[in-house]
Amino acid sequence: MSRKKSWLIGIVVTVIVSIGLLTFVLPQMKTGPEEGELDPEASASYGLKVVLDEEGQFQITAEIDIVNHSEDVWETIGFYFIPNANDEEVLPELIQDPADSNISSITNEAGALQYELTNNKLLVQLDEEMQPGEKQLLKIVYTMSLSEDGIRLSRNGNNYYLAQWYPMLAFYQDGWTIEDFDPKGESYHTSYSDFTVEYELPGEFYVATSADDGKISPSSSGTVQGENIKDFYMALMDPEEWTTETRQANDTTLRMFLPVGSDITEETAELAVDAYSYFEEKIGDNPFQELDIIANDGYMEYPNAIEVASDKENLESVLVHEIGHQWFYFLVANDPFEHAWVDESITEYATALFLEDRYDSGEYGFESAVFMAEYYDTNKFSNLPLDEYGETEYYATIYGKTPLILRDFFDGQGREEAFGFLAAYYKEYQFQNVDTETFKRFFNEYFGEDHSGFFEDWLQ
What we know:
29% of the residues lie in helices and 32% in strands. By secondary structure, the chain is of the alpha+beta class. Strands 1, 2, 4, 5, 8, 9, 10, 14, 15 and 16 form a 10-stranded mixed sheet that branches. The chain has a 5-stranded mixed sheet with strand order 17-18-19-21-20, with helices on one face.
């Protein structure tokens, strides 16, 4: 069994065991937006203060500047507050050691505001209507402790991984779009924002965030800033448990954190530099100057930070795939609940192209996709909402079947055409939101002909 196959089997088995008994009741599928409707009609900038005490509890103050870009008058402001979805009431089957969060106050300049919190949906009731073009500053104060078995937002001993940890302003389009938490994939959607994050810690930690953190050095306090970031990640790691490496990939610094005693340090460093440089050459320059790579077996992507495997068997596929997400998910954004394939399938396709070139083997490059598509049942359509897929069906369709569809099409065009298309697509939509219809329109324009017959076989 190859390294890639064993990684995928592990992922699927974990998913089946973890969520086989869990059922969500989620909103009905929406029709795709028309041209122009993907522009966010609400924006935010964040000032976040993070204080961690010696018992492992966080005290967080979030000051959020919000602007109403819509033509509607708002009575509420909607956020994703995912810490609430990591407790035992929302996800009892998934979490053995539930997290705990408690909002102590939500205020604006006039005083306290009422709110409703269900699953990860936080709706703040405004004291006065918010007119189009108006701004509002909200202050949300809450405490949070993390689960040892958390989903993305988690703790491992004296290491804390803050993913989706703050009140994230939801997308506004004829109302606030907030889906219930779904652990199969990413069920939240936010717009690009600016962040200032201040932290105070009970001791010295390695700090890795979506901002530029600079030279790796333990710290107990500090402030980081980031602009035009889709969502903000922050890891706090015990220096005694981690070894670090730094490499350059063109103009970008790759900061690597691996468990002490790891035997994959040099392999990780070499592969990360090669993959990052390859994607910049083939797809386009990444404007950010730092990428943090954390080998904590998280298998997840965040802006300017990724969680990857800590062992040789699973290193390759996970590391390259998560690096690829810096282009498709972060720099070209989409709603991962409604259109997961737009980032996951395209990223997996680009990953396979890299591996194909690295080993001069198309069979090896697409081995993961072939295995997934053959081993599990797939859905006819690749662009269903997250809640309309079965657990394994989602992975087989999005990571298996769909990258193979892209492979077969571009093999007919010539392999270099694949990266020509991806580079043009990336250039056109950098720092923008796309969906299935956006992709189809651009695809037809790029090739100068109507491919409706091609799309109707796999896109609803």
